[in-house]
Amino acid sequence: MPLTTDEKLLALSRDVIAAFDKADGGVHPGYRPAHAKGIVLTGVFTPAPDGAALTRAPHLHRPSVPVTVRFSNFAGIPTVADNDPQGAGPRGLAVRFHLGEHAHTDVIGHSVDSFPVRTAEGLLAFLNALTATDPAGPHPNAIEQFLGAHPAAMAFVQIPKPIPTSFARESFFAVSAFRFTSANGASRYGRYRILPAAGGDYLSDAAAAAQQPDFLFDEIAARVAREPVKFRVVVQLAEDGDVVDDATVRWPQDRALVTFGELSLTAIAADNAKAQQHIIFDPIPRVDGIEASADPLFEPRANIY
């Protein structure tokens, strides 16, 4: 996975990592600076005819391809409780489509159809405001001032983030838009949605508080031992005039959804801790037929991951 050689961008990426570490109470060696607590599953992706019509990407033109999927909690704290109302959400999902030896493409999403900032500079300012905030200090404090000046971040913070009964009952949304190009050269912009085949299911605050700290991880391990965990992968298509280079701008709900394919997860990856340390997901697709949009978050996110 090639990284940028732009020293300014590399420095910015390092600053964001340092800000995540500060927000999480320090460095946790061997873990990601965000979404540290995770679990890796394996399975297959089966493409849909509409997905094959949308893009010439190779995984849409094979009967199926193997996948590696990681579910995670948000915080960079590897011991964060699954029912922590602040640190656990939004939950994350990352999918690797294995296309051949040393050939793959990834999709990364989280469980909120929103993002608080448009740029890595904005994310750094958000994190710095968070760590500079003294809840017992005078108001408006640092985070209140930031949110007051950034409506998209305020909207993101205020969106309900209920705790699911299972990772298998949660929906996930790509942060940024992609450009999909078909075999005949037609292109459309779209965003991934990864939707649970079993439907969404969420706990009340009281029920969530009563759960064990690792209940989501224990539940998904027990579930996949009984039966495949399935998700429907769809792409929400942009229309002419929709903003495709700003992660804070979401498209109207009436935009068409194209069925991309299905994920069927069948096992917990062997030696899970080692598997998680080995795999680094890439937000940039780097595959013919699917390209990153001009969203400025792509390159910094690739460097940070």
List the helices and strands and how they pair.
Elements: H1 7-23, E1 38-47, H2 49-54, E2 65-72, E3 92-100, E4 103-110, H3 120-131, H4 142-149, H5 151-158, E5 172-174, E6 178-181, E7 187-196, H6 205-209, H7 215-226, E8 229-237, E9 257-268, H8 272-278, E10 290-292, H9 298-304
Antiparallel strand pairs: 1-2, 1-9, 2-3, 3-4, 4-5, 5-7, 6-7, 6-10, 7-8, 8-9
Helix pairs in contact: 1-3, 1-9, 3-4, 4-5
Written account of the structure:
This protein is of the alpha+beta class. The chain contains nine helices and ten strands. It has helices at residues 7-23, 49-54, 120-131, 142-149, 151-158, 205-209, 215-226, 272-278, 298-304, and strands spanning 38-47, 65-72, 92-100, 103-110, 172-174, 178-181, 187-196, 229-237, 257-268, 290-292. Strands 1-2-3-4-5-7-8-9 form an eight-stranded antiparallel β-barrel. Strand 3 and strand 4 form a beta hairpin.
In whole angstroms, the N-to-C terminal distance is 11 Å
The shape, in one word, is globular
Low-pLDDT runs of 5+ residues are none
Strand/helix succession: HEHEEEHHHEEEHHEEHEH
Q: Tell me, rounded to a whole number, the average pLDDT.
A: 96
Rg:
19 Å
Please name the defining characteristics of this protein.
single chain, 305 residues, alpha+beta, eight-stranded antiparallel β-barrel, 9 helices, 27% helix, globular
Summarize the structure.
Helix content is 27%, strand content 25%. With 305 residues, the protein is an alpha+beta fold.
